[in-house]
DNA sequence: CTGATTTGACCCCT
DNA sequence: AGGGGTCAAATCAG
C-alpha cells in the first residue's frame, strides 16, 4: 500500500528516534514534577513550559508513528484496541475439563509496537498493573508475564507491559511497554500537587528516592488491599522506595528532600537523553520475590513467576495532572 | 465477599 | 504448524 512515506526512513532508525523521544518525554515529565516544587509564582510558568515540551514530544511521537505505520503497511489503528484480525467472531469451545468457554475477540492488537522497552532492576513504574497471563517463551529460559493497566475496565486504559527476566542478568527485568496510559486515577498520582498554601516541605512525601527502602516494596504488592488504592505516600516516607524506570538515580540525588537544582536537572535530563534505565536500585524486585512474592496471592501457584503486579510508587505520570490546576497566565 | 493471580486453553499471526 | 498474546475458570488471600 503506502509506499512513499516510510521508505526513506529505515525502520530501525525510526525506532531509535521513537525510543529517544520516549525517553525525552519521560525526562520532561520528571522535570515537570520537580518544577512543581517551585514557589507558587514560578511553578505555573514552569509547568507550562514543560507541558509545551511534552506536547511537542507527543506530537513528534505520533508523527513518527504515522510514518512508521505507513512504512510497515500497518492496517489497524490499534488505538482503541479494537479492530484487527479477529473481528467480532464469538466462539465457543469446550475445554478439556469440560467447561464451556465463550470467547469474544474484541481486541487482538497483536502486532502492536512497543512504546518503550527498558531493562530495570525494579518492576515499579508508578502505575498499577494487573497480571493477566504468563507464558514460557521459546528462546528464553524465563517465562514472560503479561500485565495490563488496572484501569482498563473502568477507564479503558490500554496500557500494557510485558515483563521478562533479563537473560544476560537475571537480577534485572526486561520490561516492554505497549500503549500509553490514558487513565487518570488519582491514586496513580502519588505526587500530590500541593494545594495552594500547603507547606512546601511536604515534598518529602512526594518523591523520595531515599535509599532507606532498599528492600522490598512488599507493601506494594497488590495482593494486599485493593491495589488500585495503594497510595501509601502519607505514611512513613522512609519505607517507600520510589524507584522508577525513569532512571531517576541518574538524575536525582535522593535523600530527604534534597533536590537538584533545576538547571542541573535540566542538564541531566537533556544531556543524558535520559534515561536508559538500568536503574540498579537495590535488588528489590528479587528480594520481594524471595520472601513470599511468588504465588503469594494466586491460585494454584507452581511455576516460578514474577511478583504480582508490583505497583510502583515512584511515579511520574505523564499528563496526569488536571490542567485546571495550572491555569494559564494572562 | 471481593478482587488479584495462576494456569490451561484458545486462537491469531507469522 | 508453531509461537505467542489473551481469555477465563479456578483458586486463594485479605
From TrEMBL:
Domain WRKY stretches: 118-186
Signal sequence annotation: none
SUPFAM superfamilies reported for this sequence: WRKY DNA-binding domain
Compartments where located: Nucleus
GO cellular component: nucleus
Coiled-coil stretches: none
Superkingdom of this protein's organism: Eukaryota
Gene Ontology molecular function: any one: transcription cis-regulatory region binding
Record key words, sorted: DNA-binding, Nucleus, Transcription, Transcription regulation
GO BP field: regulation of DNA-templated transcription
Residues covered by region (Disordered): 67-119
Chain intervals with Low complexity compositional bias: 70-79
InterPro entries from the UniProt entry: WRKY_dom, WRKY_dom_sf, WRKY_plant
Record-given protein name: WRKY domain-containing protein
Gene: LOC101759724
